Amino acid sequence: MTTKPQIVVKTVIVKEKVPANLIQSCPKKWRKAGGPEKTEDFVVRGDVNEAGLDTCSAQVDGVREWNAGL
């Protein structure tokens, strides 16, 4: 009589985490106490806010790429 080998199956759920640099908070909007006072303030505000949007957009794109690799 031959004995049949026993097979043990164990299900392990692996929960991936999004890399920390992809889920950090987006930069805050530019603010100046009292609001913009001169034209240069509007230019700086636009540049800072645009850079913040670029950073946030890059994070979202990074999450999409990371997620596609799963």
Tell me what you see in this structure:
There is one protein chain. The protein is an all-alpha fold and 70 residues long. The protein has a domain of 31 residues. The protein is 43% helix and 0% strand. The longest helix is centred in the C-terminal third of the chain and has 30 residues. The mean pLDDT is 87.
What key phrases describe this protein's structure?
70 residues; 0% strand
The mean pLDDT is 87
Q: What is the tally of helical segments? A: 1
Number of strand elements: 0
Major β-sheet annotation:
none
In short:
By secondary structure, the chain is an all-alpha fold. The protein has one helix and no strands.
List the helices and strands and how they pair.
Layout: H1 39-68
